[in-house]
Amino acid sequence: MQVILAQPRGFCAGVVRAIRAVDQALESYGKPVYVLHEIVHNRHVVEDLKRRGALFIESLEEVPVGAVTIFSAHGVSTAVVKEAEKRKLRVIDATCPLVTRVHFRAQEFSRQGFDVIIIGHPGHPEVEGTRGRVKGPVYVLSSSAEVATLGVRHPERLAYVTQTTLSMDDTLEVIEALKARFHIQGPDLSNICYATQTRQNSVRRLAKSIDLLLVVGARNSSNSNRLREVGERSGVRAYLIEDAEDLNPAWFSVNARVGITAGASAPEEMVQKVLDRLRIYYPCTVREMASEPEPMHFSSTPSLGL
């Protein structure tokens, strides 16, 4: 069986920065430290941090007054920031800088008097955080079909931003539908983060050489789900798996050509365990795609806000 590993794959700079923030908080302040929502969307990462003393909570009401609290990489609303201040929490904001850029852009559009459309998945933490940063009218839609029925307060003053982890193909369709119906401003695809773009592009290249694609990532990870969709649109069978336990031997044959990639919050350790399981099924040759180095790194770790 031939196995080709996508490159790039796995952790992006924003995920590395967020996990490092929890690591350093535990080292500097001891346990427990509180993390609002999953620091990143991956069960294995979250369970590892839990074992080391991180407590994951869904509401700041669960946090003792004055405790060290970390905001996840997905970002939070202005209301959450104010609640943390009210409770005198010692906050470390691990929001990905690329998500923060979307916040700033949406806020600037709103200050200029535009209604803001967020292209993204309703209920996703990143989308809800961005929505909660905008004071004026804001709407969320996730497909081009929704554009036809969208009712807005000021159709002549519209702007859009996008969730960073979307499919580039789907997002382009929504943008084109918005531009066909409205006179609207926005950043084309520049809000989609570099890691999302490079991983989707690598899957498109990989799909030309494989029969089956495995995407290692969490089921609630937007960027991992989009990788699976990109594989399917490229004409190959594609499966999203959290780890080696999700593999089905019936998917494979001795002559199969298997591609493996990983979502931006999936540890490389999970990829290697998948490889170990595949080697049990059949003898494997494994090689990595040639690629350029990742274009972005975040060197700074979020600091404690007092």
CATH superfamily of the largest domain: 4-hydroxy-3-methylbut-2-enyl diphosphate reductase, catalytic domain
Order of helices and strands: EHEHEEHEHEHEEHEHEHEEHEE
Low-confidence stretches: none
What is the CATH architecture annotation of the largest domain?
A: 3-Layer(aba) Sandwich
| Total beta strands | 14
What does this structure look like?
The protein has helices at 13-29, 43-51, 78-86, 97-111, 125-131, 168-181, 194-207, 222-233, 268-281, and strands at 2-5, 33-36, 54-57, 68-71, 90-93, 115-119, 138-141, 158-162, 184-185, 212-216, 237-241, 257-262, 285-288, 304-305. With 306 residues, it is of the alpha/beta class. The protein contains nine helices and 14 strands. It folds into three domains: 2-11 and 194-288, Cobalt-precorrin-4 Transmethylase, domain 1 (3-Layer(aba) Sandwich), CATH 3.40.1010.20; 13-97, Rossmann fold (3-Layer(aba) Sandwich); 98-185, Cobalt-precorrin-4 Transmethylase, domain 1 (3-Layer(aba) Sandwich), CATH 3.40.1010. It has a five-stranded parallel β-sheet. A five-stranded mixed β-sheet has the order 3-2-4-5-14. Strands 7-6-8-9 form a four-stranded parallel β-sheet, sandwiched between helices. α6 links the parallel β8 and β9. α7 (194-207) runs parallel beside α8. The model has no long low-confidence stretch (mean pLDDT 94). It starts with a strand and ends with a strand. Helices cover 36% and strands 19% of the residues.
